[in-house]
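Figure caption, in words: inputs first, then the predicted bound structure.
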Amino acid sequence: KAKSDGRNHFAVYTAELSAEHDEHLAFEADMREAIRTGQFQLAYQPIYNPRSGSVTLVEALLRWEHPTRGHISPATFIPVAERTGLIRVLGAWTIETAARAALTWPRNVGVSVNVSARQFESDHDLVAVVAAILRRTGLQPRRLTLEITESTLIEDAPHIIDSLMRLRTMGVRIALDDFGTGYSSLSYLVKLPIDIIKIDKSFSHEIEVSRKVNALMAAITDLAHQLGLLIIVEGVETEPQLAAMRRFSLHGIQGFIFARPMWDDELLSIIKERVPSDRSKPASVGADP
Ligand code: C2E
Ligand code: MG
Ligand code: MG
Ligand code: MG
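Bound structure (C2E present):
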């Protein structure tokens, strides 16, 4: 409205802002309700050992089916959960649910769960939460992997590194997720208490066409091997991408080419056919007994 004076603009602006604010509050209320009424579920995506073809690790991924809004992507609700602090209760539920699911799988298949920076805040004590879950469920700590991102690490490095070391002392493994994005630095790999690096899917999507990505893959895998870290590549979707990635020495490949995230009943039938044999042990990324 060209004729509006400043005051009207302001009125329109605040009305929009408050509508947005209301929408935020409604979304947050919906999330609380969803947690209470069990609308969240976990999907599971198997990670394959590229040599043996067996499944040794499975990533748990949150899914939200809202009764009226329909499917809501983690890319939408995880940031809200983080901002509101709901990620703590949702995150604890996720770890416990994933642990209970893993107990129904063969003993050498582990489960990998994403965790957010806010779950490491000192007044929450993720280490105690995880210890309690392992005690309650009886899951071997070795079968649990927690995935963190580099952005988590720069938030409060000393405190988080201390928590990671305590988790590893318990036997839980730590994976650095989405490696190669954001602030990626090779020095992280040397300094941080991690066991596994998960190379971001953008690498898989460019591996056939980019010499630079090939050079980076060669450097990262070489360094990881020298440091004794396991390497998983994410987001492999096509045969050419798979062929290109197979040239590197990898411990796990995750991507739509093998399997999409699925419900646990379907997963069980897949991994039962693909239980790792003893021969796959040296290259296995799973929870070898
Ligand atoms: P992420 O941890 O990197 O998880 C992998 C994502 O890549 C998943 O998306 C998965 O469905 C997708 N993916 C797997 N294979 C392929 C492929 O071949 N091609 C492509 N294009 N994508 C593939 P999803 O499930 O939508 O999750 C997105 C992100 O949301 C996750 O990325 C993670 O950062 C976050 N997230 C999911 N569940 C949780 C959770 O329980 N806690 C926390 N804190 N974050 C979660
Ligand atoms: Mg992940
Ligand atoms: Mg993640
Ligand atoms: Mg990732």
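Residues 114, 147, 149, 177 surround magnesium ion (ligand 3) (CB under 6 Å).
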